[in-house]
Write the structure tokens for this entry.
Amino acid sequence: MTIKVLEPGPLTTVQDVGRWGRQSLGVPVAGPMDSVSHRLANLAVGNAEACATLEVTLNGPTSEFRRELWFAVTGADFELRLDETVVPIGVAHQARRGSVLRFGSRAAGARAYIGARGGFDVPLVLGSRSTDLASGFGGLGGRRLRAGDLLAVGTDAETAPRPVPQVPFPLPHGGATIRVIGARPDDDDGTRCGEDAMTRLATTRFTLAAESNRMGYRLTGPPLRLADETPLLSAPTLCGTVQVPPSGQPILLMADRQTTGGYPRIATVISADLPRVGQLAPGDWIRFEWCDRPAAVAALIAQQQTLMRTVSW
């Protein structure tokens, strides 16, 4: 085994790009909360973008390297120390055998990603190494890391280690304004939500409740009153869907979301802003800003072009 976990941090899990293509069977996607930072962690150490990384939440693990290994940390702005030396985010570093990586204070963002050259080698479950905490499979036994865990790292990599740019979006520092596409007023969800709820969604500053997790963010604020509160048949869910339950307190679905849901869907976060949403923490604020589809597509293209330039270095 290549890495020993000395202290696990509050929530550290193994994640790759996710368990896609299984939602029709009731299997959640899982995967990284911030897919961009996950990709950058792999690119920094020369891995394929789909290799498994460690997702760190709020505070990082303390880890001992059992052999020489290239690693990189991306995402949230943490202070990092390799033994007694402060090392920067977004740069590949070569750890010696016996070296210890420690996470210090966090300045912005909520989640960091540890990439190791060769990728973290845990068993594939339904085509993915991602940890699904709700279902209890993937990663290391479907759970968060614990002290004493031993992690294997693969031996294959695509390219040499390289520096990568900072994430192509501002890291949240206490909150963020997020762009969403609203439910169409002439479809079922739009009719049920009504104009008043749509207006309030975009004019309210919500707070992520303490109960927020990888499955979804519970948002607190003045309740949204729907035009039609009759029960609704369940339908497939997307990451970034904003649901309105009977309480009127929205739920923003995230990586470990259920595959179907029956609450009205008032809006959906645009794809380019999902990684930034993944960097929010309980207690942070969130505002929603309406966005049309052409602008959403343009934002995603710009983000992907930034990442493609990194690959071409």
Observations:
- The first strand starts at residue 3 and ends at 7.
- The chain has a mean pLDDT of 93.
- Residues 3-151 form a domain with the Jelly Rolls fold (CATH 2.60.120).
- The helical segments are 35-45, 188-201, 274-277, 293-311.
